[in-house]
Design a protein that fits this description.
Blueprint lengths: L20 E11 L2 E14 L5 E10 L5 E16 L5 E9 L3 E10 L2 E11 L9 E9 L2 E10 L2 E13 L1
Antiparallel strand pairs: 1-2, 1-10, 2-3, 3-4, 4-5, 5-6, 6-7, 7-8, 8-9, 9-10
């Protein structure tokens, strides 16, 4: 599915233009002692007017019939890009979560794929999170936005945590 690059989009954000918009879909989450569950998600990404791509994601658990049954998580932040020094596109993702965590991801954009790893995970004293590192993968497949999140904890090596397939709406 082709995407449109808005005329007012800064040149630095062109590598992420395919991500801009409102996306909805479903995925699966599960890790160690957390049983696998389905979830729904809405993601909004739009130029913030300051050179970044504003990001907001809201997720909720789904029952066996695919109906929402309660909140799961939310996060917000900003995507930024720059030259990685080798002619490629460096991507930064800065995220905040109401559970008391902030994350800084660094990575690269290649076509309609973005691969990121945490450079920093910081938590408040009341945070409910336990992960120490994470990796994210975003890509466009058949016009949909697919993403995957892997996490590591103090007792578990990096492994799959959540993934979803979202359609542009």
């Amino acid at each position: 599915m082709p995407f449109e690059i808005r005329a007012d989009l800064p040149a630095s954000l062109v590598p992420l233009a395919w991500m801009e918009g409102r996306w909805e879909g479903a995925g699966v989450v599960g890790y160690d002692d957390v049983p696998e569950r389905r979830f729904g998600q809405e993601v909004l990404m739009a130029h913030d007017g300051l050179g970044g791509l504003a990001y907001r994601a809201q997720s909720w658990y789904l029952d066996d019939e695919g109906q929402p049954v309660g909140p799961m998580s939310s996060e917000s932040g900003v995507w930024r890009t720059g030259d990685d020094g080798s002619g490629g596109v460096q991507v930064e993702l800065l995220l905040a979560q109401p559970e008391g965590a902030v994350e800084i991801y660094l990575g690269r954009a290649t076509g309609t794929k973005v691969e990121l790893s945490t450079d920093l995970v910081a938590r408040t004293s009341t945070s409910t999170g336990t992960y120490t590192a994470a990796q994210r993968l975003y890509g466009a497949v058949e016009g949909d936005l697919l993403w995957a999140l892997d996490v590591a904890t103090p007792t578990t090596a990096m492994r799959s945590y959540a993934s979803a397939r979202l359609k542009k709406v």
